[in-house]
Amino acid sequence: MIENQELKIIDISALEEEVSNLFSGDSRMVQISCAKIDSTLELSYSFDKDGKFQSLRVVLPSDVPNQVPSVSHIYFCAFLYENEIHDLYGVDFEGLVLDFKGNLYRTQVKTPFNLPEIRKEEAK
Amino acid sequence: MSKRTVIPFGPQHPVLPEPIHLDLVLEDEKVVEAIPSIGFIHRGLEKLVEKKDFNEYVYVAERICGICSFIHGMTYCMAVEEIMKVDVPARAQHLRIFWSELSRIHSHLLWLGLMADAFGFESLFMQSWRIREKFLDIIEETSGGRVIFGSCKVGGVRKNVESSAMNAILEKISRYEKDIMEVSSVFMNDSTVKKRLCGVGVIRQKDAFELGAVGPTLRGSGISSDTRKIGYSSYGEYNFEPVIEKDGDSYSRCMVRVRELRQSIDLIRQTAGKLKDGPIEVPVKGFPNGEFFARTEQPRGEVIYYAKANGSKFLQRMRVRTPTFANIPALVRMLQNSSLADVPVLILTIDPCISCTER
């Protein structure tokens, strides 16, 4: 195994506090990513401290508009990841320090990674 | 209060190797704010993972970027191998290091040439790229491709490098090292280079850390952080330390890359000493099921590949966080209070690779 990686699933209400604690503990923000898994969106916030890698995960429903508190006021670099996730998945981040308002990526289709599913009606 | 003007920089500019747009807010000749805008070459390569078999996707990962191609492929393979618990043979691990360090050398030489071109030192640009051509020849001899190596696969590597070939390569590298030293000495000592780079685009250590900078941008500000030290792909067996400089200016970032050239040559020599006979690949059976964040050190900094799989031949998610993406906030900070004439140098100082950034 290359390295042990910690993953902690947290509630959205605990996100800012957990990220603040990591910032106070001199952890470097590595990345924020989003994955659409079945009918959920998994937001993963990854940090590194002295080579130790850990992630916080928030799970959201994918078929409703989502509001997530931005952590860009804690880690400035988060603005870029949050804008990217907004453009690709349609997640709204409240309190973004630099908001591109959906213009970071020029995609032909809006939120291409989180398109609504179209189901064929079953033949009777 | 001075009048403010907004000047668009890019997406097409002579100094930019790839398209990125910056809105520069100026007061006279001073940049007070820089707003980046990307998305000109977004190709949706992450979405493609849902359509390509996990073995085939290596070819896509390698083509995310032409300069750090091999390490992209390798990091993707590492993510899948960790999920599938594949034990990559030792010879393959060392060969991966061999090609990674060659990749680093050719990338840094490319950057040195572009930087010299940016501040008008054309002959230094040509000398840097002339030496780079020799390393590309070695890469082509060993892997079959100059830029897109195609030599990494899930479970190992596709090509072998025999000991006789390795000895010949080491001999060539010793000769090329003299050329590298000559070019390096110009970057380190020439007064015109120092005039353009010293004290320009200073990022303090605290800011570099908080802005999420990686690679030479982070190490140039005095932070000892090199992803190779986590020991992936047998790097744990190698003797090296992160190259750091303290001043946090463009000259420091340049010096980090110059010194890493020599470090990479040393690592290649260590690789030759550690290569033992054995297989270069193992068969990979079944499909991945699980998730992992693989991280490696590209020439530009730390790259992260997040892979999530559910037991089918297609991955559910492949997320790539490239070093240039992580360095953009640091670039925005560097540009504040800089002179308009220094903007091209500052943009190049993070070694931007926009095809990596946008995927």
Number of helices of chain B: 12
Radius of gyration of chain A: 16 Å
CATH topology of chain B: Cytochrome-c3 Hydrogenase, chain B
Strand content of chain A: 25-35%
CATH architectural category of chain B: Orthogonal Bundle
Q: Which geometry of chain B do the CA atoms define?
A: globular
**Overall 3D shape of chain A:** globular
Distance between the termini of chain A: 52 Å
Main attributes of the structure:
heterodimer, A: 124 residues, alpha/beta, Beta Polymerase, domain 2, four-stranded mixed sheet, two-stranded parallel ribbon, 33% strand, globular, B: 359 residues, alpha+beta, Cytochrome-c3 Hydrogenase, chain B, four-stranded antiparallel sheet, three-stranded antiparallel sheet
Description:
The complex is a heterodimer of chains A (124) and B (359). Chain A is an alpha/beta fold and 124 residues long. Chain A has a single domain (6-108), classed as 2-Layer Sandwich (Beta Polymerase, domain 2). Chain A is built from two helices and six strands, in the order E-H-E-E-E-E-H-E. In chain A, the strands form two sheets. A four-stranded mixed beta sheet of chain A has the order 1-4-3-2. A two-stranded parallel ribbon of chain A has the order 5-6. The radius of gyration of chain A is 16 Å and the shape is globular. The model of chain A has no long low-confidence stretch (mean pLDDT 86). Chain B starts with a strand and ends with a helix. Chain B is 47% helix and 14% strand. A four-stranded antiparallel beta sheet of chain B has the order 1-2-3-9. Chain B has one domain (44-318): Orthogonal Bundle (Cytochrome-c3 Hydrogenase, chain B), CATH 1.10.645. Chain B is an alpha+beta fold and 359 residues long. Chain B has twelve helices and nine strands. The mean pLDDT of chain B is 91. Classes of the chains: A alpha/beta (124), B alpha+beta (359). Chain A binds chain B through residues 1-3, 5, 26, 28-31, 33-37, 44, 46, 51, 53, 55, 75-77, 79-81, 98, 100, 103-107, 112-113, and chain B through 35, 37-40, 42, 44, 46-47, 78, 82, 209-212, 225, 229-232, 292-295, 302, 304, 306, 308, 316-317, 319, 321, 325-326, 328-329, 358.
